[in-house]
Automatic annotation (TrEMBL):
Keywords from the UniProt entry: Transferase
Alphabetized GO MF terms: quercetin 3-O-glucosyltransferase activity; quercetin 7-O-glucosyltransferase activity
SUPFAM superfamilies: UDP-Glycosyltransferase/glycogen phosphorylase
Pfam families noted in UniProt: UDPGT
Family (UniProt): Belongs to the UDP-glycosyltransferase family.
Name of the protein described by the UniProt record: UDP-glycosyltransferase 83A1
Amino acid sequence: MGLPHALILPYPAQGHVIPLLELSYFLMDDGFKITFVNTENNHKRLLANMSKKERNIKGINLVAVPDGLESEEDRKNLGRVNDGFLKKMPIFLEELIQRSNESGDDKITCMIIDVSMAWALEVAKKMGLRAAAFWPASAGILATMLSVPKLIENGVIDPEGTPKQQIFQLDADMPPMNSNNLVWTCFSDPELRRKLFNYMVKSIRAIEIAEYIICNSFKEIELPAFIHASNIIPVGPLLTGKRFGKPIGHFWPEDATCMAWLDEQPANSVIYVAFGSFTIFNQIQFQELALGLELSGRTFLWVVRPDLTSETSDAYPEGFRDRVMTKGRMVGWTPQQKVLAHPSIACFISHCGWNSTLEGMRNGVPFLCWPYFADQFLNQSYICDVWRTGLQMTANDSGIITREHIKLRVEELLGDKTMRARALELKEIANKSVIKGGSSFENLKSFADAMK
Ligand code: UDP
């Protein structure tokens, strides 16, 4: 008999590709052959950031399918992107599976599909393949999405997805949420909201086809969500440490020089500042953050993605770069997992994307939370109110997080030893869950065995 062969399909975003590649490494070690499917655009970006040697990952075949959009279309427009998927990608995926199975190698035996690509579960069904859904974010958010019919019934949103009741709680033991921070309600354009809501409703229906729903979280950090939605299986955090030395699917080139720079810094001294792959700053807030870091008087490593601000010319405050030359380092993209594991890191100013949240947690790093969008607000509540491993940043009446506030919060966080102690406790709990005998490890192993 041939090897079990899983086709893995992430949503084409950085925070989805990384954990699914991590899952692929686990399955590969467990005897699976993997076909990892990116959109053509992202496939190119991934390969561009890998060495020749890295591209030949033994057991993992990186392949591409078109995303159904014209080459010049804006791939940041989620409404257009999702339309493109629904129209053409199912066919492209079917053709890929047929081609792969005709090639005579091990036939594809199952599909593991990102919940945000749940339409592909229909493809699995049509092709007679076993299928599972993978959710790269918190169980709390997935449980909320699966509860849309209940949210409508309880008057939290209307049948079109428009918020009716702002603050709601999915379960008495879960943090309160704001219906304006649901994935589709974050957008101001009503047409886009409607499209995203419909896409999500379709996805939720399609999930019913999945034999399993696995989630990159673990039961110890959000037990009420797992009790509320008992069909979600925790298998995370999917950071096995094996990724060190293996490509993890970055879209941007890593500035590896920052690691050598961190080596020169004393233990527990550097503020790491990063806002993931999507967040965009307006010019005023960008400059205020720069001045806040300067005012803190501390050393900092700040990820300034090439598209972090909409400003085309030099976005920094005048003279800033010269003034912080010895204290601060701004880079376009870091090997973030390695950065957060570095002993020099004292705290993490973060947008609270789920991957960043888990990565900080796995390294016992306390947070200053600066969420922008959707699930990042729930993640902030987990960090500040449930796990108590971080502090919230608060904007002033003009919606700006001021330099003085940044300095104050940094001092408060770094002066609070209990915060660090709790973060270290959580690190131990997280690490235990993913080693042999740990809750997530055993779930993942049972899942892999079942998919064989
Ligand atoms: N990341 C990185 N280098 C950076 C910034 C981010 O490697 O300079 C990675 C980070 O480690 C995480 C991912 O990009 O795995 C971002 O995912 P997250 O869920 O935190 O945020 P999103 O980009 O989805 O908003």
